[in-house]
């Protein structure tokens, strides 16, 4: 058995990474990110794809366009050279702040106002 390949995503803006962007078609996202499992968050929701090896979950609208991309372990997620996944909020506030990027901690984690 081979270990899954870690996928790196570089955040470019509030709507795009270097690999996929909001608005892309389901087929384009699947073609880029590879093997997936399809699921529904609720019985009434549109289909979403879980790219297990990439650490990505993609949610689409009724037309099949990407409307939400969630990234978690094992994904490597980078913003301006700073790794986001697996770091403490305090570390991110400091590292991103040193690059002039504001990070606002909240009850769920943190927000980056320039990307929201």
Which structural traits does this protein have?
four-stranded antiparallel β-sheet; 116 residues; four-stranded mixed β-sheet; 2 helices
What does this entry look like structurally?
With 116 residues, the protein is of the alpha+beta class. It is 15% helix and 34% strand. It contains 2 helices and 10 strands, in the order ββαββββββαββ. The protein has helices at 26-33, 89-97, and strands spanning 8-13, 16-17, 37-40, 47-51, 56-60, 66-71, 76-79, 82-83, 104-106, 109-111. A 4-stranded mixed β-sheet has the order 2-1-7-8, covered by helices on one side. A hairpin with a 6-residue loop joins β3 and β4. The longest helix has 9 residues, at 89-97. It is globular.
Q: Gyration radius, to the nearest Å? A: 15 Å
- Tally of individual helices: 2
What fraction of residues sit in β-strands?
25-35%
Q: Got a strand count?
A: 10
Shape: globular
Low-confidence stretches: none
Instruction: Order the strands across the largest sheet as they lie in space.
Output: 2-1-7-8
Strand-and-helix sequence, N→C?
EEHEEEEEEHEE
Report the major sheet.
4 strands, mixed
| Structural classification | alpha+beta
Mean pLDDT across all amino acids: 91
Task: Estimate percent helicity.
Answer: 10-25%
Distance between the termini: 40 Å
Task: Produce the secondary structure layout.
Blueprint: E1 8-13, E2 16-17, H1 26-33, E3 37-40, E4 47-51, E5 56-60, E6 66-71, E7 76-79, E8 82-83, H2 89-97, E9 104-106, E10 109-111
Parallel strand pairs: 1-7
Antiparallel strand pairs: 1-2, 3-4, 4-5, 5-6, 7-8, 9-10
